[in-house]
Write a structure and sequence with these properties.
By secondary structure, this protein is an alpha/beta fold. Helices cover 49% and strands 16% of the residues. The two termini are 14 Å apart.
């Protein structure tokens, strides 16, 4: 069974999507539609901007979404997937490709999500860090033991790789303890804030209104969602899980394991980079990922 997966923020690079724009009339039309919806030429930033321009959350998220969705929907070799999933922001790409959201509605929600997260980041300085080489449970326990600061396990990416998220002091404290406990690396990430943590609550409240006001359809195939790693086909439940996503961890390891248990044996990553392909290989070496 074929599974499509879609990356999140961090996969972006300058020049992304230009080949699609230049070589596919359908892709060009979709990019131009996006410029119109967003009210600025995001294609200029994607194709010719600086790394710094592209790193702004309000630009990065729609840019990664557009590259992912347009590359999937204009792939003439692609067959209808049997299941889909996306990492964080990538869940919106998965919902569009599965037919649960229209391209236009998906882009509007991603843009609102990006602006809401940018605002939440400005309220309180916060950060994230990748913890390499410790079991998930140990990372969870250490974060839970820190009571005077906000710090949580935010992304369970693959065995031995967990990203933590929270206040700068909380993340620094957790990194120090986790290093003592044998982490091979505790690496602070270049991100604008504490994504998938309680510090995103203001963004979640703002996004909730937009999600509830948007029409969702039953997807053509199951969408495995970040909050619980389970397949969903019910439009209302998909909405609720999407609202919870901003303040909940991304359960990527469990998502891929569940997809494999349900029959996925070939994964195709659509979007910039190949981060998810690498994670899938670490989760299960017996499946193919391209």
């Amino acid at each position: 069974m074929k599974a499509f997966v879609f990356p999140g923020q961090g996969a972006q690079f300058v020049g992304m999507g230009k080949d699609l724009y230049d070589n596919s009339p359908k892709a060009k039309e979709m990019f131009e539609k996006a410029n119109e919806i967003l009210g600025f030429r995001i294609t200029d930033v994607m194709f010719e901007g600086t790394d710094e321009d592209l790193r702004q959350t309000k630009v990065t998220q729609p840019a990664v979404f557009l590259h992912s969705v347009i590359s999937a929907l204009t792939d003439e070799q692609a067959q209808q997937p049997d299941m889909v999933a996306g990492h964080s922001l990538g869940e919106f790409s998965a919902l569009v490709v599965s037919g649960a959201l229209t391209f236009e509605d998906g882009l509007v929600l991603v843009s609102k999500r990006a602006h809401a997260m940018q605002k939440a980041c400005e309220i309180e300085p916060s950060t994230m860090a990748a913890i390499i080489g410790l079991p998930d449970e140990v990372v969870d326990e250490v974060c839970d033991s820190i009571n005077d600061q906000v710090v949580v396990a935010a992304n369970f990416n693959c065995p031995g790789q967990v990203v933590i998220s929270g206040s700068i002091e909380g993340v620094d404290k957790a990194c120090a303890i986790l290093t003592e406990k044998g982490a091979k690396r505790a690496l602070k990430l270049k991100v604008g804030g504490a994504f998938h943590s309680p510090l995103m609550q203001p963004a979640a409240e703002e996004l909730k209104q937009a999600i509830l006001a948007t029409t969702f359809h039953a997807p053509k195939c199951p969408v495995y969602q970040n909050v619980n790693a389970y397949p969903q086909t019910d439009a209302e439940q998909i909405k609720q899980n999407l609202v919870a996503q901003l303040t909940s961890p991304v359960r990527w390891t469990q998502t891929i394991k569940n997809m494999i248990a349900d029959g996925a044996d070939a994964f195709k990553e659509y979007g910039p980079g190949s981060v998810l392909k690498g994670l899938i290989a670490k989760i299960d070496r017996n499946v193919t990922a391209e």
